[in-house]
Design a protein that fits this description.
By secondary structure, the protein is mainly α. The chain is built from 10 helices and 5 strands; from the N terminus they run αααββαααααααβββ. This is Gag protein.
Length: 240
């Protein structure tokens, strides 16, 4: 144990679980927080409305959550690479948004297991088999040839076994046959009721919620049609 603690892998593990600062959790704690977030909250979602013309997706992840995802994914990938490099004998070989979140969350959990796997291999504690959820080259090539995000999401959910095992037979059938995402994943009424159906608009407002449950409405500057409209306006109203 003392030999491991003094090793490069031991130092890397301590760095992985050590908080970055008073207000920043460790990479381990951040990934745990994201992986345990089984459903998106209202404050995690931005509803950008529906434009008359073709536009990006209506629903996106809120910037605050996106920043945590970017940091967690980037740091986890770095730690995995560094841990892998310490093993010289190792070969170097709203429903749609919810579905994407399920996939990301489970991939983060898989990343955590990979990091732990490298630590175990380093200590010769056990010969842990490779994760069956590892993304194959064939899947990457298939995804690269698909222009539609919806099609790519269905392939990821179907071919990543970790994700697919959480679907019952009816949901799997709906996924394979291209049915509505509402038949594949579940979104709680607390979220679905908070984002009602919207019709196309010339300059739709951005709708989201703060952590206290207050509705926040904004007009993004890049969508404003006049100079007067370019100032971001925000309105908060308590949700009963």
């Amino acid at each position: 144990m003392e030999e491991y603690a003094a090793s490069s892998m031991g130092a890397l593990q301590r760095e992985y679980i050590q908080p970055v600062g008073e207000d920043q959790p460790s990479t381990y704690a951040l990934i745990q927080q994201l992986a345990r977030k089984t459903k998106l909250e209202r404050s995690d979602i931005q509803d950008r409305g529906v434009l008359w013309t073709d536009a990006p997706p209506r629903f996106v992840v809120a910037p605050s959550l996106m920043e945590r995802i970017d940091r967690g994914v980037g740091e986890l990938q770095t730690f995995i690479q560094r841990a892998s490099n310490l093993l010289p004998d190792r070969r170097k070989d709203l429903f749609q948004l919810e579905a994407a979140w399920d996939i990301l969350r489970e991939r983060l959990e898989t990343g955590q297991r990979f990091f732990a796997k490298y630590i175990d291999e380093f200590k010769d504690a056990t010969n842990v088999p490779n994760s069956p959820a590892s993304t194959t080259v064939a899947i990457h090539q298939q995804l690269a040839s698909m222009p539609r995000a919806d099609d790519r999401l269905r392939v990821i959910m179907h071919d990543f076994r970790v994700t697919l095992k959480n679907l019952d037979s009816d949901k799997r059938s709906a996924l394979v046959h291209g049915s509505s995402w509402s038949r594949v994943v579940n979104v709680g009424p607390n979220v679905s009721d908070a984002f009602p159906r919207r019709t196309p608009e010339r300059n739709p407002i951005l709708l989201t919620y703060d952590e206290e449950g207050n509705q926040v409405q904004m007009i993004p500057p890049q969508r404003s049609s006049t100079k007067e409209d370019s100032n971001v306006t925000a309105e908060k109203s308590s949700i009963s």
